[in-house]
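BUG-304 | component: ligand-complex export | severity: low

The export step for iron/sulfur cluster jobs runs without errors, but we want the raw record kept on the ticket for reference. Input record follows.
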Amino acid sequence: MTTIQPSKTKELVINWHLTEVCNYSCKYCFAKWGRPNELHRSGQEINTLLDKLADYFIKGTPTLKGELGYENVRLNFAGGEPMMLGSTFITALKLAKQKGFKTSTITNGHYLVNSKLALPENTLDMIGISFDSQSLDTRSKIGRKDRKGNSFGTEDLKQALASLTLSQRGIKTKINTVVNSLNLDEDFSELMMELKPYKWKILHVMPYGNNELLISKKQFDRFVYRHSGLGLPIFSESNSTMTESYLMIDPQGRFYQNSTNKVGYKFSESISLCGVENALNQIEFNSRTFASRYHKADIDVVVL
Ligand code: SF4
């Protein structure tokens, strides 16, 4: 049996779902928290939350640091679509950088090419861009378009990656593709060979809401197999390998995780009000269990 030793270069990842709001309406989307009281409405509250997180995880010596031996803490801004928040997203990004976090975001890409606000230079260490199809028709059927019918396409993806590479020194670019019944037979080989992302993450569509998109494990494996052997940086993730091995914060600034009986989520109070340690205790967070799960998982694969 192989024992996995804690790595000294390990990065702790905190996944902050900044907002539930999104300009797209993918049929497989599960970002549904209800919108009231999202924290991003107040710059002061964002600042307070980031201070609490930095004091605890970066400057402090929590048990988790001992368990994981992490050296960096990466704050991953997720959604909904985090870039929809415009200047607030940029403020949060800059603040996170100033406070010592590595930063990343997961985006549908739309605002990388359709925003008047440029990303400030060197504020993003990593980005994950969702891209499910080179065909507008397929993207539309999946729901990857806004109300006006705009959809982030192949040329947009190329343009976005080129400009990110220029403005964000050393950025790691990842492309996330959710394989479903509509893009199952599509060939991405040529595109991925041209784009050369740092990683291409291939995910099996999750059973959520819309069953017409579901595919079997065999079909998923066949998609992955078809794209293998070409030297592409593929990381595939089927439903059975998905685990929660990162800390999660909801749009209201609370930790949350699956409840032990796997029905719904368990939420802490606001981290800003009760402090990081109390909030972790409220979701019955166990740093040892977390650390053992963390070492088993490839965090890059799971989160971004
Ligand atoms: S782009 Fe992402 S957040 Fe938006 S609807 Fe699609 S899956 Fe959900």
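Assignee comment: Attached the raw record above. The chain has a mean pLDDT of 89.
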